[in-house]
Design a protein that fits this description.
The protein is an all-alpha fold. Helix 10 packs antiparallel against helix 11 and helix 11 runs antiparallel to helix 12. The longest helix has 16 residues. The chain is extended, with a radius of gyration of 28 Å. The chain starts with 9 loop residues before the first helix and ends in a 6-residue tail after the last helix.
């Protein structure tokens, strides 16, 4: 191409630099930018610098990004809206507050308004740095400048208020969101359930949980696990059973993680004192028994010092054709040590040293 007297366009260079930078090949992207600067003809513009800047910031190469900004200034290339948005997002993620405020100040000085994405970043910045009170003012500011609040911004606000225990504010934001005709997504429901459960308000958490399912959405399995764990701790077995049956009927029957936590609850609270009964009950549900389920079951028994049941779990695991792993053997050591059966604990420890084990 060069031999024929042709050269790639500046737009092609920008696309190639961006592709290389996003793929983590920043040295090659930087070499292309340098090549473009020395080819003659149109010099690199903000699009080329932003393409490389995006890649550097995505890889958290903040010092290299700072150097690139200096080079950009030396070349007389003005920073544009894209430049500042890339910097704001990266600085917010890195927790560089002073740099974030500097970017916001520069944008204001240059008359560059924040859009929806920018405000979402700002909400995240407030959330991660304990400045939840500023989030309240942010809603009013967005409305004053005519920025449309989307589901991402609302979710950020709900998460911010929830994280700092301001659940009344979180609920007000949620109600405002629905009043504006913005449909909550799975992140909205997960945040409402998570923060209400964390402060022990299971009644509201379950209310949101039910509403979420009525909207045709299913919770993050981790959220479901925390709910049933808390119900188990509170001894609300009837409610737990109803919830579990409903979830199972809605497609969670094969969720090993959910069953694993149920096994843990039953073990700790005495509903299945015998490991054989517990495993038989799980088999009756046609559950595929996995190493993680056996590990959680063994943990429940080991925490109570029930050595024989912990050993039974190991035997049942072997009977299912699952090779005992390092986690299981460590649980046995803990159980035997707690019960004062030190010789058996030492025997298991020696077995670990003599065997090749796999991890959970």
């Amino acid at each position: 191409m060069y031999a024929a007297g042709m050269r790639a366009s500046n737009a092609a260079y920008a696309r190639l630099i961006r592709s290389l930078a996003r793929a983590g090949r920043t040295l090659e992207a930087e070499a292309l930018l340098l090549e473009l600067r020395h080819l003659g003809g149109p010099l690199p513009d903000a699009a080329h610098y932003n393409a490389l800047l995006e890649g550097l910031l995505a890889r958290a190469h903040l010092r290299l990004a700072d150097c690139l900004l200096l080079q950009m200034a030396d070349d007389g290339v003005p920073r544009n809206r894209r430049t500042y948005m890339l910097l704001l997002d990266a600085y917010a993620r890195a927790g560089r507050l002073e740099d974030s405020w500097w970017v916001l100040g520069e944008m204001k000085r240059r008359g560059i308004r924040l859009g929806t994405t920018g405000y979402s970043t700002l909400v995240r910045l407030y959330r991660d740095n304990g400045m939840w009170k500023k989030a309240t003012d942010l809603v009013m500011e967005m409305q004053e400048v005519g920025v449309e609040l989307d589901v991402k911004i609302y979710n950020g606000l709900i998460d911010t208020f929830g994280k700092y225990g301001q659940l009344a504010d979180a609920r007000r934001v949620f109600e405002k969101m629905r009043a504006e005709g913005i449909k909550p997504d799975i992140a909205t429901w997960n945040a409402l359930i998570r923060w209400h459960r964390r402060v022990g308000n299971m009644k509201r958490a379950l209310r949101y949980f039910a509403a979420m399912q009525e909207e045709g959405m299913y919770p993050d399995p981790k959220i479901f696990i925390t709910i049933i764990s808390r119900l188990g701790e509170q001894g609300k077995w009837d409610e737990l059973k109803r919830l579990f049956d409903k979830m199972r009927n809605r497609g969670f029957k094969d969720s090993g993680a959910v069953y694993a936590v149920l096994v843990d609850i039953y073990g700790q609270y005495g509903l299945f004192r015998d490991a054989h009964e517990c495993v038989a009950a799980l088999k009756a549900e046609k559950l595929r028994l996995t190493p993680s389920i056996f590990c959680v079951l063994a943990t429940a028994y080991a925490q109570q010092g029930l050595c024989e049941q912990t050993v039974s779990v190991l035997q049942l695991m072997e009977a299912e054709g699952i090779e005992p792993n390092l986690v299981m053997l460590n649980l046995l050591i803990n159980a035997f040590s707690t019960a004062g059966r030190h010789l058996e604990a030492l025997a298991v420890f020696q077995h670990i040293k003599d065997s090749v084990c796999t991890f959970c």
